[in-house]
Amino acid sequence: MRFFVRYTAPWVAYFGLISWLSHRHGGAVPLVAPLDKAAHGLEYLPLGALLLRWRCARTRTAPSLRRVAEVVLAGLVFAAADELHQALVPGRRADGLDVLADAVGVLAGSLVYAAMRRRADPN
Fold it and tell me: What is the residue extent of each domain of the chain?
């Protein structure tokens, strides 16, 4: 139970937050395209860190390119599902470039987490 609370619950809760935000009626905050993509990347950045933290704790391994790739793939799947979900919400639409921006955010977040772990434990 301790593992769930410490490592699993944070990314599950963040998934829930992203899903909840995606379910809100669209049109509230229209953004210019570059700002929209940056917002997507920033929204998914913490998710990358949380997923890599969970994955490394689960496998009891240090961050590696393989773990980062696993996390980015998981984030990409979630981002694609989230965009499909948005297509069903009135006032929202799906955008493949948003999925790409989300994946870049997950990648950035996982790399930031990996760098922080490396700095904290250089061995």
Answer: 2-24+32-120
